[in-house]
Design a protein that fits this description.
- This protein is of the alpha/beta class and about 425 residues long.
- The protein folds into 3 domains: about 5-180, Alpha-Beta Complex (inorganic pyrophosphatase (n-terminal core)), CATH 3.90.1640; about 185-310, Roll (Diaminopimelate Epimerase, Chain A, domain 1); about 315-430, CBS-domain (Roll).
- It has 14 helices and 16 strands.
- The strands form 4 sheets. The chain has a 6-stranded parallel beta sheet with strand order 3-2-1-4-5-6. It has a 6-stranded mixed beta sheet with strand order 7-8-9-10-12-11, with helices on both faces.
- It starts with a strand and ends in a 6-residue tail after the last helix.
Length: about 425
């Protein structure tokens, strides 16, 4: 399998449709799909598995892949086990997506703000005069209708409508489309919607009405995007946001932020990009680990208001010049500096290049007093966790929490240019930044 096509986890119909279309555009490409799919897609696959040739992407031999085609996402972490391909040198990558804000750097990309990714791929199918079957046309139309709300969402474009007409000309079956687009709305979704309504908070920001509701969920709940859409329609606002907090004893808490809007002047996708996620103008989402929902709600309000914090970057908060030590310094001398400066760790720098970090916890490795004369490089952490100056404070906070570190060297072009500490991040979150 030298050439594979894949998409995001929790695969919806637009993702499945675009993967299938890609196998037509790239002859010989293998469709590698995730096991995590939404309920309606699972039903479709169970009924049509003999008509399509899909592979479980967990069974793909990574070392044999030479070309990766990604559809309906541009973010590595959403590719599950195939995200390991990020480290493969010489990999040819192509991306088809109608979302923005991801981190996949592709050699070729088609990324435009259409209502659905399949619309972009239909453009190519038409240009190449590809022949499609009625069942393929039906699948493609299902994906198009799902992501555009049957062309009713504000993100829908004229090209989406033309693509739908082309698919109907190719015998897409509307009765089958309607059957599989019935939303999976059951007891779990009703409970979440009820809790959202009971905790709803409304505000007016820059003339736009918006509502944010935070709900704790247990286990896996499908179709939270549908719940947010229904919530928005009920509270009747320009933009609605659901913050779903999932607590896990084995892992750190996570907050799933989902936003929906029908207002032409609001770009939910760009807002979610600032939170580390992405989307398109009418819809977006972000996953945040170890961050309280109250903080996420504040960030959303700041971003909607155009608050100066919404554009704050690490470079605005970091400390510089950086106090560092050379790898040849004795541990005893490093301990003295830590005590005098009252800090818990120091970057280790050689020829302006970050080679490690020495922290108080590293001194626990010392077993003999004579080892205090050993060089720092004998005990330092050699794979320091770093961050880039263009990242956001919330990304810094998440990184520090995930790796349990109190500071992050800020690195640009392999050189350390500053350092951000947990205290710096807290100054941001508690609105203590100087005017």
């Amino acid at each position: 399998m030298k050439q594979i096509v894949t998409t995001h986890r929790n695969m919806d119909f637009d993702a499945l449709a675009s993967v299938t279309a890609a196998t037509l555009i790239y002859p010989g490409a293998v469709a590698a799909i995730p096991r995590a799919v939404n309920t309606n897609v699972r039903s479709f696959l169970s009924m049509h598995k003999d008509l399509f040739n899909y592979f479980d992407r967990r069974e793909i031999a990574i070392d044999r892949v030479e070309r990766l085609i990604v559809t309906d996402t541009d973010t590595w972490h959403r590719l599950g086990p195939l995200a390991r391909l990020k480290e493969k040198k010489g990999l040819d990558i192509a991306v088809w997506d109608h979302h923005y804000g991801g981190d996949i750097e592709a050699q070729w990309i088609c990324q435009e703000p259409t209502g659905a990714t399949i619309t972009l791929m239909i453009r190519e199918l038409k240009a190449e005069k590809k022949v499609i079957t009625p069942i393929q046309a039906t699948l493609f139309l299902t994906g198009l209708y799902e992501d555009t709300g049957c062309l009713s969402f504000s993100s829908s474009t004229a090209e989406d409508a033309y693509a739908a007409g082309w698919l109907l000309d190719h015998k897409a079956d509307l009765s089958i489309v309607g059957k599989f687009l019935r939303p999976a709305y059951g007891e779990k979704q009703r409970d979440v919607l009820y809790k959202m309504l009971s905790k709803a908070q409304q505000a007016t920001v820059n003339g736009y009405s918006l509502s944010i509701s935070s709900v704790e969920i247990s286990g896996h709940v499908e179709n939270l995007a549908l719940v947010v859409r229904m919530y928005k329609d009920i509270v009747n606002v320009d933009a609605a946001f659901g913050l779903f907090v999932s607590k896990d004893k084995k892992r750190e808490d996570r907050c799933i932020a989902i936003g929906r809007s029908d207002h032409d002047d609001l770009d939910i996708g760009s807002l979610m990009k600032s939170l580390g996620g992405g989307g398109h103008p009418g819809a977006g989402s972000a996953m945040l680990r170890g961050v309280k929902s109250e903080t996420v709600a504040t960030m959303i309000l700041d971003l909607m208001a155009g608050n100066r914090h919404s554009s704050v970057q690490i470079s605005d908060l970091m400390s510089f010049p950086v106090l560092s030590v050379p790898p040849t310094m004795a541990m005893e001398e490093a301990a003295k500096i830590l005590r005098e400066r009252g800090c818990t760790g120091l970057p280790v720098v050689e020829d302006d290049r970050l080679v490690g970090v020495i922290s108080r916890r590293d001194f626990k490795k010392i077993r003999k007093e004579s080892q205090l004369q050993s060089p720092v490089k004998a005990f330092m952490s050699r794979k320091p966790i770093t961050i880039e100056p263009g990242k956001s404070p919330i990304q810094a906070a998440r990184t520090m929490i995930r790796h349990d570190v109190g500071r992050l060297p800020v690195v640009e072009n392999d050189k350390i240019i500053g350092i951000i500490t947990r205290s710096d991040a807290m100054l941001f979150f508690y609105d203590l930044l100087p005017d």
